[in-house]
Amino acid sequence: MRKAVSAVILLSGFVMASAPIFGPYSWIDATGGRIDVGYYGAPCIVDWNGDGLKDLVLGQFSYGKIRFYANSDSNDSPVFTGFSYIQSDGVDITLPYC
Ligand SMILES: [Ca+2]
Fold first, then answer.
1. pLDDT of 44-86, one tens digit each?
2. Is the pLDDT at 17 greater than 90, yes or no?
3. Helix spans in the chain (H)
4. H or E, element range at 69
5. 25 C-alpha to center of ligand 1: Å?
6. Alpha carbon of 82 to ligand 1 centroid (Å)
7. Which has the least CB within 10 A, 13, 26, 37, 79?
8. The whole model's pTM is what?
9. For the chain, what are the domain ranges?
10. Contact between residue 37 and residue 27 where contact means Cβ atoms under 8 Å apart
């Protein structure tokens, strides 16, 4: 009986675990224009520069480069202006692409 109760509790916890809820998509703008990397963009929201604001790090298929858009406003209402490519030792980092 104890195992059955545990199983029910575990199962109900599994079912009650909140699944992500996604709203409609929206485009991300930077400097008044839509960010467009062509195709196969790989976005990541992270505080890249350590200022407490979540930035946009965006991998692009073209040349395998990685863009960095600094957030200049707030985490609730991020504003992205221009971007720079993430570098190592002064050279743009590139990832293999096909
Ligand atoms: Ca930041």
1. 999 999 999 999 999 998 899 999 999 999 999 999 989 999 9
2. no
3. 2-16
4. strand 66-71
5. 23
6. 14
7. 26
8. 0.74
9. 23-92
10. no
